[in-house]
Amino acid sequence: MAERQPKRRGFDPLTAAAVAFFLLAVALAATPALNAGPATLAGLLLLIGLAGVACLGLFVLRSAVDPTAEAEPAADKLIEALSEPAAIASADGRLQACNAAWKQAMGPATRLPKSGASAASLFAALAAARKGETGRASIRNNGTDLELTVSPLGPRRFLVRLPGPAPSLALPAAALEVIHAVSTARSPPPKVLDAFAAASPFGAALLDGEDPFEAKILEANPALKAVAGGGDVGQPFGQLIDPASRADAAQRLAAGNQVGALEVRLAHDPVRIAHLYLAKSEGRWVAYLVDVSEQKQIELQLAQSQKMQAIGQLAGGVAHDFNNLLTAIFMQLDVLASRHPVGDPSYEGLNEIRQTSTRAADLVRKLLAFSRKQTVQREVLDLGELISEFEVLLRRVLYEDVKLVTDYGRNLPQVKADRGQLETAVMNLAVNARDAVRAHGGGQVKIRTARLTQEQANQLGYPGAQGDQALIEVSDDGPGIAPEIMEKIFEPFFTTKPVGEGTGLGLATVYGIVKQSDGWISIDSRPGEGAAFRIFLPIHVPSAVSPPAAPVQPKRPVARDLSGAGRILFVEDEDAVRGVAAKLLRARGYEVIEAASGEEALELAEEHAGQIDLMISDVVMPGMQGPDLLKQARGYLGAAPVMFISGYAESEFSDLLEGETNVSFLPKPIDIKTLAERVKQELQKAA
Fold first, then answer.
1. Which of 119, 374, 583, 652 has a CA 20 to 30 Å removed from the CA of 317?
2. Binning pLDDT at 50, 70 and 90, where does residue 549 land?
3. pLDDT value for 182
4. DSSP-H helix ranges across 207-292
5. Which CATH architecture has domain 195-291?
6. Is 355 helix (H, G, I), strand (E, B) or coil?
7. CB 472 within 8 A of CB 519
8. How far apart are CA 318 and CA 596, in angstroms?
9. Does residue 602 carry a pLDDT above 90?
């Protein structure tokens, strides 16, 4: 026999009304004097009879609306039919009835856990049961972890079972009959959202109709209007979703792909993206709309960052290979120039080839700047002096119909950066601004420099600024930048200029230079209001205790006589570079030993131990790299200087040379004049 918990009834308004009506009738009957006439007594008797009929009707009505009146006997039969521990619970976790096996397993408690992790798991299972599913909960009772299953019995009644050692999810036939009997007596479909959905921070709506996108809204929580910009009662739910997105979601739903979220765009702002969750229960739909616009934006930024990183790696590799080819071209031009001096018919053609190769080398430098693998030679620069000196060149670049305005702020700081790189960045921004204003009949380009506080930098577009910042701003009064272009503006090879007029590397180069200088760049532009590019650079603060100034040594004069003597070990995997460089160095009096790999160079260094005056080596080679070669060959080279040549930046491998001395670097592409000058300088220093 099922063990029943004490039944506690709260205030019943129907019962109270019936009792009050009956007492009123008795009072009215007892009030008149006993000597009243026959007509009066007959009226009182009729009133008493009507009160009795009303009381009987109210009690019948109470029984009809009390869902537990008929459910309690069914509950007793249900849990008696189960051999495993079972109980009937209300929506708040209170137990209404339980069998003997339950009391033996769970103890005399009259309710399930109401706090902690157990309660969270339990109420999640109750929520699943309210949807007609079988929920599962993990609770802790008397120090033991238990797994419960929760099944729906009615709108506010649930069957809770504790499976035994060999639990079966199937219920006995008698229990199934009881559940069917109780289920058929359920109340109509819900007309209101539950408390959780009503108070949730995401949009929720109860819909009436077979098609959720055509169904009308019966009720919506306040968050739906904030998310979707609408959600009035009676409004078709589909009006909240962008038409194209709605059609796609409806197609996926019809195909049975409604599992999980449907990604949709909102009608009031198609830029905003939301995840739509739909659940059908009792002939009605419940829709949840979660705004994921910011999450999508972060995902896009991450994807863009990964794409830019991949392109940067590709650009660096391409630039390295191009530098090798350009080095071979420059050196071959040097050979041909010695055979075809000025006045020779071929001189002009060779000169054009050199100019074209120089342009190609400049393009490679831009690729390296974008990929942040360009050799950086940082120095302390005064921001005002840098721009004022560069202003003369800028005025030559801008045309007569473009006015250049400069604004130098007060107390301008010093920065530590590569002068050439910063000039390239400002030049590219100024040229872009010039082209923007000239396309609309001319205008003004303004360059502004200033010292900014951290708060000012934050307001001008540098959210992660730390301390004071140096600002270089290049602005124009042109047509501005469209929002769809703004997202791609720093991508390499993206340009809005006609074919043949732009490489699409100008702003990508600026971006790489700024990042390589530990800075930040932002854009402020609105269509029709011009554009402003702002470069933020960290301010250079000299150390409090300055070391004594070293005596200024005069710069070593450039060697005019490029001939010399000495044995050089030349290591280069590119045959075209190694062959022509060795040939030209031999023509200037040097003995050159060639090696096509690090392994071959190590053997030659051992063979000529103590007899090598200079080693020239590429950095990146198949197999043994240049720094590894130096570490293994240093014992054979002794104090001989080492010069690395590479198309990559020196910073890419400088950490691999820790502890090494008498090492220099020469970036590619190089011509024979530059190479011969550096070779003679290194040998003179070692002498």
1. 583
2. very low
3. 41
4. 222-228, 243-254
5. 2-Layer Sandwich (3.30)
6. helix
7. no
8. 21
9. yes
> Measuring CA to CA, how many Å separate 156 from each of 12, 95, 96?
18, 12, 11
Tell me the torsion sign for CA atoms 480, 484, 489, 492: negative
Q: Do domains 68-184 and 195-291 have the same CATH topology?
A: yes
DSSP 466: -
Instruction: State in words which class domain 378-538 has.
Output: alpha beta
When the candidates are 3.40.630.30, 3.40.50.2300, 3.50.50.60, 3.40.50.300, the CATH number that belongs to 567-686 is 3.40.50.2300
The amino acid that residue 191 corresponds to is K
606 to 601, 612, 636: CA distances (angstroms): 9, 10, 6
Q: Which residue has the tokens 């001008």?
A: 460
The token duo for 199 is 């108070």
Determine the angle formed by the axes of helices 347-370 and 293-339, rounding to 10 degrees: 150
CB 82 within 8 A of CB 73: no
Most confident of 5-14, 219-228, 445-454: 445-454
The radius of gyration of the chain from alpha carbons, rounded to an integer in Å, stands at: 43
**Strand 469-476 to strand 642-646: parallel, antiparallel, or no bridges (unpaired)?**
unpaired
Report domain extents, the chain: 3-65, 68-184, 195-291, 296-370, 378-538, 567-686
Of 629, 643, 627, nearest to 683 by C-alpha is 643
Mean pLDDT of 539-566: 59
User: What pLDDT score was predicted for residue 592?
Assistant: 93
Contact 617/623 with Cβ under 8 angstroms?
Answer: no
Most confident by average pLDDT, 35-44, 137-146, 169-178, 623-632: 623-632
Q: How far apart are CA 79 and CA 4, in angstroms?
A: 11
Three-state DSSP class for residue 493 = coil
Maximum Cα interatomic distance, the chain, rounded to a whole number of Å: 154
| Cis peptide leading into residue 669 (ω within 30°) | yes
Residue 387 has pLDDT above 90, yes or no: no
- Are 217 and 231 within 8 A, CB to CB? yes
Evaluated on CA atoms 616, 618, 624, 629, the torsion sign reads: positive
Residue 156 has pLDDT above 90, yes or no: no
User: Which residues are within 8 A (CB) of 247 and not within 5 positions of it... i.e. 6 or more apart?
Assistant: none
Q: What would the mean pLDDT of 406-427 be, rounded to a whole number?
A: 86
pTM comes to 0.42
Phi, psi of 656 (to 5 degrees): -80, -10
Q: Could you say which of 3.30.450.20, 3.40.50.150, 3.40.980.10, 3.40.50.300 is the CATH number of the domain covering 68-184?
A: 3.30.450.20
The residue that leads in pLDDT, 20 or 480, is 480
In angstroms, the CA 564 to CA 587 distance is: 10
Asked if 387 contacts 406 with a C-beta cutoff of 8 angstroms, the reply is yes
Mean residue pLDDT across the chain:
75
* Residue of 388, 384, 376, 383 lying closest to 420 (CA atoms): 376
- pLDDT at residue 176 tops 50: no
pLDDT above 70 (res 505): no
**Which two structure tokens, joined as six digits, stand for 351?**
């000169």
Read off φ and ψ for residue 298, nearest 5 degrees: -65, -40
How do residues 96-134 score in pLDDT, each as one tens digit? 888 888 888 887 777 787 766 777 778 778 877 877 777
The residue type of 658 is E
User: What kind of fold does domain 296-370 have according to CATH?
Assistant: Helix Hairpins (1.10.287)
Length of the chain: 687
